[in-house]
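Ticket opened by: R.M.
Priority: normal
Category: complex prediction / small molecule

The reporter submitted a protein together with magnesium ion and asked that the result be attached to this ticket for the collaborator who will pick it up next week. Submitted input follows.
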Amino acid sequence: NLTEKLGDIFDKLKGKGKLTEKDLDITLREVKLVLLGADVNFKVVKDFIKNVKEKSLGSEILKSLSPGHQVIKIVNEELVDILGGENEKIIFNSNRVTKIMLVGLQGSGKTTTCAKIAYNYKAQNKKILLVAADIYRPAAIKQLKVLGDSIGVEVFSMGDKEEPWKILKAAEEYAVPKGIDLIILDTAGRLHIDENLMEELSLIKQNNIVDETLLVVDAMTGQDAVNVADKFNEKIGLSGLILTKLDGDARGGAALSIKKVTGKPIKYIGVGEKINQLESFYPDRMASRILG
Amino acid sequence: ILNFGEIDADTLEELEELFIQSDIGTNITFDLIEKIEKQSILGKLKNSDEVISFLKKEFIKTLEIETREKKSTKPSVTLVVGVNGVGKTTTIGKLAHHLKKGGSKVMMIAGDTFRAAAIEQLEIWAKRTDSVIVKHNEGADSASVVFDGINSGISKNMDFILIDTAGRLHNKVNLMKELEKIKNVIKKANDNIEIETLLVIDSTSGQNGLIQARSFKQVVDIDGIILTKLDGTAKGGIIFPIVSELKVPVVFIGVGEGVDDLRFFDSEDFISALFD
Ligand SMILES: Nc1nc2c(ncn2[C@@H]2O[C@H](COP(=O)(O)OP(=O)(O)OP(=O)(O)O)[C@@H](O)[C@H]2O)c(=O)[nH]1
Ligand SMILES: Nc1nc2c(ncn2[C@@H]2O[C@H](COP(=O)(O)OP(=O)(O)OP(=O)(O)O)[C@@H](O)[C@H]2O)c(=O)[nH]1
Ligand SMILES: [Mg+2]
Ligand SMILES: [Mg+2]
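Result attached by the on-call engineer:
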């Protein structure tokens, strides 16, 4: 692992006497490889290494007795700091129905995660309404309905012929007299470069007050994560991120890249296909996962 | 990019960035950079045009691999596998459409008996492509649906049988065991059938794509790879480490969500797109 690798490098370097800045560069190259291997974005890694180097030099690491451990400590702190922040949850509206929408690329886990969030808040005695606004994917509405049935949460649908922004409007009108606390809107997977489909999302927010816009990202996403998150944030504005399929063995470097580039908090993580497999995001756990 | 005359440290840095950002991975990237440095020191590469054509040749060498001749059986059976959400079900729809255009009789087997509305999703694709579909109820044993499907496909004189399976993460031992069981059950239905197993890889995947490919190859022996979602901005460079290490060819690419959005893999087109 990284601790051992850096330990070995520094042991060899110390053998030649005084440590130099060049020695630190050799070490940081190893950190760079680890981060790239974990799918952290190239440019994000570059900035990260630069910051770690500055902090390392500032901390008089070259005079330290265990510089390898010092570097790891700084790397870890820097990772946690970027990923960081307190455990952010969905911010509930006190005087009207709270509406959240899940967006993201095809297959990232939006529909499943909508149901997981519904299950989570139902267990906290909130009244939930799931809204089926994927009007394209074969059996998408059925998928949400089956999931909703499995947890006793109602699914609002207007079929596949109505525009999503109208579906949300109608859902809210339906929800208010029923005392619904939270509306969760499932949207179709789409490419960030599909102008029409990105416009469809903008229309939802132009015609409705949406309290949370959460980007759902697959933990195995590679370098492209930054492009996706950036475009979604730029075009429709995000309030948070959800990282799915963390029950796999993907290191999840995309989380670091996306957090760094958008500054939006990671609110949840998906850790399985079952409806109760939604967890809070812990920056320190993610940091050690990325470092491998 | 790469419009310098000379090859210098900046050019190499730009190439490193391009390759890493295409998900080619650090091993292959540094390997290639090293080769370029050597060649340019020997005076064999004098400008960036020569570097690019050198690189394109190296890439082609990696992707064009020998594929063993498979005896064509009737029915020809294709098992489609991969992790969750990569595009297996949709790709089966596209494959069916492509085969039907050629006048073949196509059957789909709804082997995903787990996920909500997976069967309904495949049924819609069967209708769209005028394919026969074999399904049981949700929650049925996947291997038994496949067994029944193969027998039905043989008796109905199908040319092609396409088997949809549930998405599964490769680190889930019991789910990978289920795939082994499915393959065995096909053999049990008819020992003469040669199964073509296609692994679907999402072009947005990072280095985990290589680990997926290794695991699936080890458990069910992969014959080909389908790289989906290339209509996005991801370059799909993960196929370089996959193909070079596992020697499995990329056979198709997915370029959209529609029934026609499937192409045969063309390594030259793919490699040119890498440099765009
Ligand atoms: N292992 C695992 N699988 C997950 C997780 N979240 C979702 N999935 C699976 O990923 C696949 C895709 O999930 P969906 O909810 O259909 O994804 P989606 O984003 O709604 O897909 P589109 O609507 O087509 O864009 C399904 O097989 C899910 O069961 C997770 O946290 N872990
Ligand atoms: N843009 C684009 N989307 C695709 C492509 N292939 C599949 N998709 C989309 O990706 C999403 C997931 O596709 P599925 O076919 O359900 O994927 P799957 O692998 O069967 O998913 P699970 O069965 O849940 O594991 C759907 O929204 C598809 O429309 C492609 O080539 N390009
Ligand atoms: Mg969905
Ligand atoms: Mg499927």
